[in-house]
Design brief:
Blueprint lengths: L2 H20 L2 H53 L2 H8 L3 H18 L1 H4 L30 H37 L1 H16 L2 H12 L3 H27 L3 H8 L4 H9 L4 H25 L10 H7 L12 H26 L5
Helix pairs in contact: 1-2, 2-3, 2-4, 4-6, 4-14, 6-7, 6-9, 6-11, 6-12, 7-9, 8-9, 9-12, 12-13, 12-14, 13-14
């Protein structure tokens, strides 16, 4: 038995005993469960499996530490009201905000962060990583690391624009339908039903095949696909508000529809709409990445994570995990946004932690 195995189990058992002595039941159960799992995993997978568990736990602890530090940083630079809300945020939400912040910095400052241009050929095809290329080269000899940095600007930026347009169209239609009612409400509802009845991927592929995969076409098509979802939520939220007494009082004062939307309905429906924006962004982001993977999304030579997975998929046959890096970037951002959205939904629901 190697010194690593002895030290591994000694640390786990000592930590379990310490937590049990201090009365930290949750942490004791967590560490002791890890100890039991490690016993079984060590027998089946040997030292390599234990090293993998060690790396995973270390990365998890690193993510937890970064999340806690980032939350404290946000608390220090925020106002009293925002700081009070941030103190109640779980570590998962803090981790999500840190990832979103990192992606935003990478996208905004991509030309200064990336060592090479997104279309600059600097090496041979599929060149291995070296001191200049951290992740090696793609099928044309372009730096993979630089293209991933630029992909944060292109993929995330286009998804954000498409989500914003879908939200503007859907929320505006939903608010007007709730205020006006009658035939306008029925018409908007039926239009939303027709669009939602067509599978989103098929609809997007059909429209892009007809109109061409230009960036503005992608944004408009994706916005049209997801605006009915926003319409339905906005119509439901606003429909519960327009029957309130203060809305009736505003109508008796002679206030118009736009006043009711801006001053009465919208301020009281901000929380669920903000959470819905995060969810819609995840769906839009994954759809655009999928379209790029199929070849009808963002076109070369523009760097895009979906197309980067497709272009370098050959490397997987040779045991090279480089194509999985842009796929991991897509998954990480999606998970991070969902962490933040879950926290926002928890806050807007009015539930309290025990």
């Amino acid at each position: 038995m190697s010194a690593f195995v002895i030290g591994y189990y000694a640390v786990l058992i000592a930590t379990s005993v310490l937590f049990a002595y201090l009365g930290w039941k949750r942490w004791f159960m967590l560490v002791f469960t890890l100890t039991l799992v490690s016993f079984v995993t060590g027998i089946v997978g040997g030292v390599g499996a234990l090293r993998a568990i060690t790396i995973f736990v270390a990365l998890l602890a690193l993510a937890g530490g970064i999340s806690y530090a980032f939350k404290e940083f946000l608390v220090q630079i925020s106002g009293p009201n925002v700081a009070k809300e941030l103190r109640t945020a779980p570590l998962t939400a803090s981790f999500g905000m840190f990832v979103i912040f990192t992606y935003a910095i990478a996208g905004i400052f991509a030309p200064w962060i990336a060592p090479f241009g997104e279309s600059e050929v600097i090496s041979s095809a599929f060149a291995p990583p070296d001191s200049e290329m951290l992740l090696g080269a793609d099928q044309l000899g372009r730096d993979m690391f630089s293209r991933i940095i630029f992909g944060a600007r292109n993929t995330v930026g286009i998804a954000l624009l498409a989500t914003a347009l879908a939200f503007i169209m859907g929320a505006l239609a939903g608010l007007l339908a709730a205020v006006k009612g009658g035939w306008f409400d029925q018409l908007m509802g039926r239009v939303a039903d027709v669009i939602m009845s067509v599978p989103s991927l098929i609809f997007a592929l059909l429209m892009l095949s007809i109109l061409g995969p230009q960036v503005w076409v992608i944004i408009v098509v994706v916005a049209v696909i997801y605006s009915p979802r926003v319409f339905r939520l906005t119509r439901a939220v606003a429909g519960n508000i327009v029957v309130m007494d203060y809305i009736e009082a505003a109508k008796l004062r002679g206030e118009g529809d736009w006043y009711l939307i801006r001053r009465e309905i919208l301020p009281n429906s901000t929380a669920p709409l903000a959470a819905e924006f995060g969810l819609e962004f995840c769906f839009v982001f994954l759809l655009i990445a999928g379209l790029s993977f199929l070849g009808l999304g963002i076109q070369p030579p523009t760097a895009d994570w979906g197309s980067m997975v497709r272009e370098n998929a050959t490397l997987i046959s040779f045991g090279d995990m480089t194509p999985l890096i842009p796929a991991a970037a897509i998954a990480l951002l999606t998970v991070a946004v969902n962490f933040v959205v879950d926290w926002m939904l928890f806050r807007s629901s009015g539930l309290k932690e025990r």
